[in-house]
Design a protein that fits this description.
By secondary structure, this protein is mostly helical. The protein is 67% helix and 0% strand. The protein is built from 13 helices and no strands. Helix 6 packs across helix 8, helix 9 packs antiparallel against helix 10 and helix 10 crosses helix 11. The longest helix is centred in the C-terminal third of the chain and has 22 residues. The radius of gyration is 21 Å and the shape is globular. The two termini are 23 Å apart.
Length: 250
């Protein structure tokens, strides 16, 4: 999906968003907003969908909030479907701007939007993933606020939608910024055991692969280590060192 060709309408949205954000920069880095956020959000979504309305809405997701353009402009140029996705994103944009006492209610409100259009949530997750990937440029208080919010609200949403790669990366980035020492320790241990893990995965896959070939199936088998956060959480809850975590693979 990542290499799906850009459609004429998506190209138009690309140019539209570039013009809308041409003078904007990211707050803490000063880097161009379109290149370093909007484009990245669109790129993440291309890994999961070829739906044109979703990809266009991803390019336009901040246009109404951050510029003088309005929903009517979006509907006129890109249609009702794209406009409703942008409208949904705009409506939930303030849902997480409160203290922790409000979070349970905010979480419930966001889940309710799933019944309207899941694409709103998908874009919101891609948006948050990019923000988490660039968290290093933010002040410490912002890092902790955004990381905690991500762990409590966004990672469970990714899990609910079956987006394991996004869920795992959000959790790993949460750990990276809230307990850097623990994160680095687990990463070091994972890297240290890479050779052993590769051999284990290969030996596990081989008989399964042989049987599938014998049966005439077309298939792909993948093995990977558990996420950093998943391993850390098991160490913490069971009170064991890395070496005693037996289910390191998925």
């Amino acid at each position: 999906m990542a290499n799906a060709p850009i459609t004429p309408k998506e190209k138009l949205a690309w140019e539209f968003a570039q013009r809308a954000h041409k003078d904007q920069v990211r707050k803490f880095t000063g880097l161009p907003y379109f290149d370093n956020h909007v484009q990245k959000v669109n790129g993440t979504l291309k890994l999961y969908t070829t739906d044109e309305a979703t990809l266009i809405a991803a390019l336009l997701h901040d246009v109404v909030e951050d510029t003088d353009l309005e929903l009517e402009d979006i509907e006129r140029d890109f249609g009702y479907k794209v406009m409703t996705i942008i409208d949904g994103l705009t409506k939930i944009s303030g849902v997480f701007e409160y203290g922790s006492s409000q979070q349970a209610e905010n979480f419930r409100k966001m889940l309710l939007t799933l019944s309207d259009d899941v694409r709103v949530i998908l874009i919101k997750l891609a948006d948050r993933l990019n923000n988490m990937r660039t968290l290093g440029s933010m002040p410490r208080n912002k890092q902790l606020k955004i990381a905690s919010e991500t762990m409590y609200l966004y990672a469970p949403l990714a899990h609910r939608l079956g987006l394991n790669a996004i869920k795992s990366e959000l959790e790993d980035l949460y750990l990276k910024y809230t307990d850097t020492e623990a994160y680095q320790e687990v990463v070091h241990k994972i890297n240290e055991s890479k050779s052993y893990r590769n051999k284990f995965i290969k030996s596990f896959i081989q008989p399964v692969e042989d049987e599938l070939i014998r049966q005439g199936f077309r298939f792909t088998i993948k093995g990977r280590p558990k996420s950093v956060y998943s391993i850390f959480n098991k160490m913490k809850t069971q009170g064991i060192p890395f070496e005693e975590v037996f289910d390191l693979f998925a």
